[in-house]
Amino acid sequence: SKEVAGGSFHFYHEGMGRRTVENVKYENALYRALERDEFVLFYQPQIDYCSGRLTGVEALIRWNHPVEGLVPPGIFIPLAEQTGLIVPIGEWVMREAAGQLKKWLDAGYPPISMAVNLSAAQFEQDDLVSVVERVLEETGIPPGTFHLELTENQLMRDSELAIETMHRLKKLGVHLAIDDFGTGYSSLGYLQKFPVSTLKIDRSFIRDLMDDDDDRALTDTIITMAGNLGMKVIAEGVETKPQADYLATRKCTLMQGYFFSPPIPARQLEKEFLKNEKG
Ligand code: C2E
Ligand code: CA
Ligand code: CA
Ligand code: CA
């Protein structure tokens, strides 16, 4: 079966629902991590394969643990979601990501987009729209450069409410993307109702693109469908040139994956991607 991104989700899976001593300790540690500013964002390039240009980045959180080192999100995001800590953590992510983009724009780098991931609990907060509005005001980034990624299943939980929230977000000028597309259970009928500008094809379909007919058929269908609906498509998890070339023949030219770059720190992105585009 198709796996969820991150790969390390199993670490804390068993008994995660229980409030064990370990769990509570861990929860406190997460809370302190936020207070001590131990979270960091890495940025993964999104490339237009036709032009070779950087079009945007996706911000991905890591926990820079004083003892354990860099802890990937698959380890701590599930617990943060369960405990509700994802709400303040997610707000920090938005501020940090938007603030970083502002620095890049001020430094004269070409305009790119900044995508952040929204958890279900964040999406369901009454004040999400005002939080996003405040982040835009405080940082002063053009709203159109800010992209919020939501998963299909998140949108299907209470789709009427989701659609309303999405419209309010869209009014702020931000763009919405459906993450991990193809793994959820939203119907095509619903897809039309969601005011999203981008579909991100889940990397589990890209992984076997070259030798799995079903994955290829599904990928082709998503690209065609998105085109018909006037949406952009980003293929996630592109690891090889044959995958990239195949996608290009299908007119999907926006790509993200290890073939181009893993998520990297801001400084490294500046050196390896932004500097080349300056001027
Ligand atoms: P995602 O949003 O689907 O992010 C893409 C994940 O795929 C990232 O893992 C990225 O490093 C990985 N990836 C990118 N290209 C490739 C590739 O070519 N091959 C392979 N095998 N993997 C690739 P990461 O950074 O460990 O994040 C895992 C998940 O954690 C994310 O999946 C997202 O659901 C969640 N996450 C990360 N940051 C945040 C955040 O700030 N807030 C929330 N709510 N969730 C986050
Ligand atoms: Ca995924
Ligand atoms: Ca994402
Ligand atoms: Ca994804």
Automatic annotation (TrEMBL):
Every EAL domain range: 23-277
Species, as recorded: Edaphobacillus lindanitolerans
Protein name per the record: Diguanylate cyclase/phosphodiesterase with PAS/PAC and GAF sensor(S)
